[in-house]
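pasting for ref
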Amino acid sequence: MNSAVTDVELSGAAESSSSAVSWGPIVAGAFAAATLTVVLMLIGSGLGLTMVSPWTGASTSITTFAVSAAVWLIVVQWLSAGLGGYLTGRLRTKWVGIHDNEVYFRDTAHGFLAWALATLLVAGVFGSALSATIGAGVQAASNVAAGAAAGASSAAANSAGATDNNTLGYFVDQLFRPADTGAVAPAGQNDAATTAQATRILVASAAKGEVSADDKTYLAKLVASRTGLSQADAAKRVDTVLAGIEDAKNKAKAAADTARKASATFALVGALSMIVGAFIASVAGALGGRQRDEDEALFVRG
């Protein structure tokens, strides 16, 4: 009778019934990492508010603010990941009868799982709380950074078809200002139909990106009849107003492009910092587990 034991039988006899994943330490490390993230984000919000001010010249530049926010995001991610991974490795129980390489792999995996769980907690459970807490700071920074282009953004909205009576009305009023503010206004000065015509011409021209020669000539005639200016002076005023509208559009486009680039950079830096944070959490988990086993071995020998 053959009494040899097959590899399958030997493997089944040696396999442990306990799971290789210790969820207790993973959850504990994840909660510690998530809590530290919240604390550091609150600190970052406070520091960010000190960098912005509604007073002219009292705030840092948008570039400095963006770089500082990105650096702080990296610091938050790395510190939280390191703490969560280390606690996960230190809090797990000792694995007996397992090769050292397997122990290192499990500790590394535990650190990574703690980081992943903490990331989900912050993104899901704490996301609304963080948004409500630091939203005021972010909004203040955005308002200060884009304050100079606020009117320009409104003008850009006009060019897209959304009419803003205050912004566009300013340019229309600029067209029809009387040449002599002390003189009696010519007849028809308050003609709403003429103002409406000029408004529609400006809106349509802004949407097309150019003003036709006929429209420009007609605007000059309207200005001349409403303000008492000569035809040549009225034409110069029309050119000045159209140049102001174009400048406002260009400023709005520049502000939008700056915001786009800042958002793209922030997203890429955030993704990179999270990848590095996952690596840090994994390494910290391995270090914490190794230190836990070494300290226990020293205690037993002592």
